Amino acid sequence: MSAAAEKAMPKVEPTIGGSVYVKPSAIEWEPTQFDGISIKVLYEDKQKGEMTCLLKWEPGATLPMHKHPEIEQSWVLEGSFYDHDGICRAGEFVWRQPGSFHETHSQEGAVILAIYRKPNVFQQAAGYRRNRAQ
Fold first, then answer.
1. Across all residues in the chain, what is the average pLDDT?
2. CATH number assigned to the domain comprising residue 109
3. Total number of domains in the chain
């Protein structure tokens, strides 16, 4: 690019406050409505239904049958979890097709980074409720 063309371009400045840094270690685990599954919400846009969270599964925990209205992406950080299609272990990634149904289990426990475009749909509710009393 010529010097004249560079001068003609407006200077772009960074957006102050455009990055939101999150320290997961400073966030407390909150129980969900599912026994043995806790959550740390890293990002949430309730209006759009988007959420990025850490899920902690105790050994033997099960997430009951549910539907994925949009793609779900999961990166297993510790342990493993599985469904009828296979098992995902620490360091592995799985994503779920929009419209798919499944039930997931963890024999050994797990910590999972999960990214949702829309909340899971369970028989009684959509998404995760925190502090079981809600």
1. 91
2. 2.60.120.10
3. 1
The amino acid at residue 4 is A
CA–CA gap between residue 119 and residue 122 (Å, rounded): 9
Q: What is the tens place of the pLDDT at every residue in 81-107?
A: 999 999 999 999 999 999 999 999 999
Report yes or no: 52 and 43 within 8 Å, Cβ to Cβ.
yes
Q: Look at residue 10 in the predicted model and tell me its pLDDT.
A: 85
DSSP per position, 42-88: EEEETTTTEEEEEEEE-TTEEEEEEE-SS-EEEEEEEEEEEETTEEE
Nearest-angstrom CA–CA distance, 1 and 71: 41
Give the global pTM.
Answer: 0.84
Residue 53 lies in a domain: yes
Any domain includes 22: no
The helix or strand, by DSSP H or E, that contains position 67, with its residue range, turns out to be: strand 61-67
* Structural domain includes residue 83: yes
Task: Please give the pLDDT value at position 1.
Answer: 64
Rounded CA separation 78/108 (Å): 10
Instruction: Provide Rg for the chain, Cα atoms.
Output: 19
Domain contains 107: yes
